[in-house]
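Pasting as-is:
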Amino acid sequence: MPTLFGTPLRRKEDPRLITGHATYTDDIRLPGMLYAAILRSPHAHARIRSVDASEAVRAPGVVRVYTGRDLEGRLGPIPTAWLVPDADLKTPPHPALASERVRYAGDGVAMVVAESRAAARDALERIRVDYEPLPAVVDAEKAMEPGAPLVHEEVPGNLVLHWRAGNGAEAAERAIAQAEVVVRRRLRNQRLIPTAMEPRAAVAQYNPATGELTLWLTSQNPHIHRVLLSGALGVPEQKLRVVAPEVGGGFGSKIPFYPDEALVAFAARDLGRPVKWTEERSENCRATTHGRDHVQEVVLAGTRDGRITALRVRAVANLGAYLSTAAPGVPTILFGLITSGPYAIPHIDVEVFGVLTHTTPVEAYRGAGRPEATYLLERLVDLYAREIGMDPAELRRRNFIPAHRFPYETPTGLTYDSGNYERALEKALEALDYDGLRKEQEEARKRGRFLGIGLSSYVEICGLGPSKVAGAVGFQGGLWESAVVRVHPTGKVNVYIGSSPHGQGEETTFAQVVADELGVPVEDVEIVHGDTAQTPMGWGTYGSRTTPVGSGALALAARRVAEKARKIAAHMLEAAPEDLDFRDGAFQVRGVPERKATIQQVALQAYLAWNLPEGMEPALEASAFYDPSNFVYPFGTHVAVVEVEPATGQVKLLRYVAVDDPGRVINPLIVDGQVHGGVVQGIGQALWEGAVYDENGQLLTGSMMDYALPRAGFLPPIETYRTETPSPVNPLGVKGVGETGTIASTPAVVNAVMDALAPFGIDHLEMPLTPEKIWRAVREAEARKGGAAA
């Protein structure tokens, strides 16, 4: 049987998805089900004088109305699960429903439960809330100023964390002071709205006879949701079952444990009937977590011949009104530690201020910290290249960590597992015909066409894994993964995994791994996930960890099954286990190939148990828990080619080349799909997307009419290539790939646009690079030039 590892199989999960036979949370229908709707504050900051729900309670179809007062002592606060140490972290309480004060426009104030969805929504309009509006602050830097409105009284100056990383602030300052070249820039990494195709939803059912509660919800990590729900509800964990059905996009926004999920579970238990809540799109924009939102002061120092000597970063991270589940770890561990990127930078100093504002809470969004770090570094590298008159590709080449220096310890304390960064760069330049394209660019400028070429070289920390490290950085859980591989009597295989794929394709890639290990057809392997009642404990799908960590557990369990099968086959064939070869799904006696036993025959014998080796237990299954020794560090280089029309400010993407190294590739087709999706999201940030609040905390981009997303017609074909540098830290040598496109594409596109605008003397504009912004910058540049000439 030819190996399936590396084969571009079509996804096994796609037929049910594309034919409409998949089950999402909102598709669940239960007898006697009630429907919930949540009243959300229209004010970013206000004191609640009173809540009068009497008219809503009398409305047709209404079963119950809950306010914050009703929940006191009955439903605990929403917890934060990443308590970063050495950061003076403060974790103000987050009630499921506000009872005294609302802290962002979208904060929940009351919940109606009714016989129909329409009745619940209609009743919201009958609730009378007397608000006393208070001053609000939405800008993180302004929130730190003396006299700024406080989001929480227990957080002075709204500073919820202050964290530092690097190998010495004083050493970095000396290197900057002594440098031949110093480039400084203030950058804004704007706030984004994740905008998953499927809004959040939850359905809860309580069984009073057993005290058991089942919660179906849009989750990237059902086991973590169960732990956190147990704490909030006060229900023993063994009485809770959490199920993540199909999830229509997560991108980090379905990691957190939200108040809405706790409210639905609480109501189902309180009323003794199933309760469903499904978010509307406008709610999704206001109440589902946002991403990014950094202001960064960056200094990069180096020599005239292009050697980077120091990097200093001061980042102010807007974390919104409450600390979400993993929020403290995103602008610290996932951002600050990876700021060195693929370069050998001797001195690094990173300082992060986490700030509360009267805005929607900010959480992980595809890439989570890594895009923010890569953007600042790649923008400064391009500005440095422009300052010294060096080609940006050559500057990167000169500063890459050499391949022979891996494993490589960075100044921020990470140990990169493996890499060959120059090979990825050269492959991208070759695919693009870089030298030829530069000549074409020069000729085009003579004719009044403005082409731009933008590079982005990246390395990311992912495969979030080592549990000891997780504990050291304050993550309130382990980061191992688990798997149970069960071969049935007929040789068919079920695999139960603790991680929870939701679009990444692991039902296919994991089946390929198991099929290879056991020699069975890939069609005979089913991956079971997302249900805490069926699967072993696992820590979820985020941080590009499912394949690097989950496949480790999977491979170990499958190999244990194969080892037991070998012993049974040896007993059946009256041979020593070491004298058997395993190929094409059968154990063969070496030198006597006609004496063989297929894996299906062995499985049947394992269950019949008529003639097993002495002392061996029946059945054929094994479990494994895998806790990796390190993170994994995929890397690559992306290149964008654009044309900018100065008269209109329009940007046209002409080409996009992505060269990624995710270690060994299980399924090239799925890897390409992951890269495509990530690239599009990153381009969206560069050119179109951005959440905007007014000074009163009102979200001005709270609908699809106002929040611009990329469309297929805006994009050229994405050209994907790969290099392969196996990781030494997991059994299969794989790394993650789900976030690489988002991390690399944003700076690649911005660098390309800035390259196109170089003849106008424009070296930086803040994202998104909208036509109006570019048009105004060109007009201002031409006005300056005209004034200087006069």
